[in-house]
Amino acid sequence: MLKKFKPDMICKSILDIDLETLIKKGINYLIIDIDNTIVAWGEFEVRDEIIEWLEKAQKMGFKICLVSNNQKDRVKKIESMLGIPAIYNAKKPLKSGFLKASQLLHQGKKNHQTAVIGDQFFTDVIGAKRLKLFVILVRPMKEKEFFVTRINRIFEKKILKYYEKDERE
After folding, report:
1. In what order do the strands lie in the sheet with 63-67?
2. Residues sharing a CB contact under 8 Å with residue 115, sequence separation 6 or more, in sequence order
3. What is the pTM of this model?
4. Domains and CATH numbers, the chain
5. pLDDT digits (tens, 9 = 90+) for 94-134
6. Which residue from 87, 32, 38, 33 is spatially nearest to 63, judged by alpha carbons?
């Protein structure tokens, strides 16, 4: 069962994602998590190199939507700073937030053209895989996190070790 939820790619950070590779895979749409993927948890400042990566992706033709389980005020502030549409209170890993983002991005085009980028296995990966989306798991930007996320990370580490072992065999 775990193989069903294996991320398609694992990268150190969003900055390590090769956009050319995604284009070659036919991906045109990016659904990107906010907290600890593009902005450190509890902070509002988006690092310049992240902004540059997002701008580069848009110039290359990617359409982007941010999706977060966080509250409206935080998400709307980041949406406004970046000029990228965002879904707040997404309730990941439920499908609804991903479906709202998909509808906003491509109004019904096929999911195989969409990649989800996030830092959490139990929200981003599982939610996206339930919709058969391409998933890129990145390492969290900082260790400071919501207390429930810290608990989830214990189990997440075990799952990622399983995937690493499976790839070596």
Report:
1. 9-11, 134-138, 114-118, 29-33, 63-67, 86-87
2. 8, 22, 27, 29, 30, 31, 133, 134, 135, 136
3. 0.88
4. 2-168 (3.40.50.1000)
5. 999 999 999 999 876 666 799 999 998 889 999 999 999 99
6. 32
